[in-house]
Structure formats: C-alpha cells, structure tokens
Design brief:
Nitrile Hydratase, Chain A, two-stranded parallel sheet, 197 residues, 2 domains, mainly alpha, globular
Length: 197
Amino acid sequence: MTQDSSNEKPWQAVRTEAVESLLVELGVIDSTRVDEIVHHYEDKVGPKGGARVVARAWVDPAFKQRLLADGLAACAELGLGGPETEKLHVVENTATVHNAVVCTLCSCYPWPILGIPPAWYKSSAYRSRMVREPRRLLTEMGLIIDPSVEIRVWDSVSEIRYLVLPERPAGSELMSVEQLADLVSRDAMIGVAKVSL
C-alpha cells in the first residue's frame, strides 16, 4: 500500500486501527484501555520524562551533579524510574566530548525515562556500525560532529543503561524548564542528535 496524498494515514496506522477494531469487536480488548496505555507511554513513560530530567539538569547545578553521580536516584526525584533502569549512568556531552549509546547485543534501553526504543536502535546495522564507525554513522543520521570532538560510544547492557545529557543550546538562558524540555528529543538523549533552538 502506498500513500497518494499527504492527507492519507500511513499504512501502518491503517493496519493498527483495523487490528484494534477487530479485537474490540471480538471483545478481546477495550478501546478505552488501549487509549490509556498509549497515553501512558506518550506522556508518562517516555521521552517527555527524560526531557524533564535534562531541562532540570540544565537549570539546577546541584541536580545535575546528583544526576551525573547517580542517574537513577536523581530521576527518582522527578518520579521516574523502574524496570529497565536498575542502574542508570548519565554521560554528559560537552564542547570536546560527544556521547552516543548503543546496545550491541539486543536493545537494552531505559524505557521508563526514554519510552519505547526507536526501530533503528534495535537494528543490527545501528548496533554494529555505532561501534565500528560512529562518526560516519552519526553523519548519515544527520549529525555532523567536528573532527576535533571525541566520540565516546557506551554499550548499554542488562545491568546498566545510559542516558546522554545533551549540551544546552546557546541562547536558551532565559527559557523556563518547561520550554527547555520541549526542545529535548529522544534522539538527543541517545546521542544521535543535538538540541537546538
């Protein structure tokens, strides 16, 4: 199925709606419960939570220090954490170091902080190339890192998960925590994008 106009839904959305409709009709699921679950992952467990953590670290030096020392405890201060974050290590991007996260074995990822992992994060191409040629892969993903900047790749495993604390963009000094959080993307917290105004 292809899309003929920008007004049409992607085929994946159409398929998902059809399956949900059938399961509701058969009494297997309740559409209200499906909406609650989607809302939970979009607003309560997901990149918005991680973005709140990053924004708070940008404006609160004491929180940032606690976040870098013990990521899980600092996230818990904001009501975030749980399974898949038993040990959360936060790595900070600076003018001289850029961090990126990968799971070379499967798709270990801090779900409660970043939400559902993107499909590309689980792909074998990403998992192998991020280790072998991170600079080239990041460039292909649209992120050009200056050659003078060191790239550090962190391998997320079942015992430890990683969160990248992106650099705060210049010109954001007068923005509120909420405004800053709106700037932060999931990809920036994985290290494959930067935060910009």
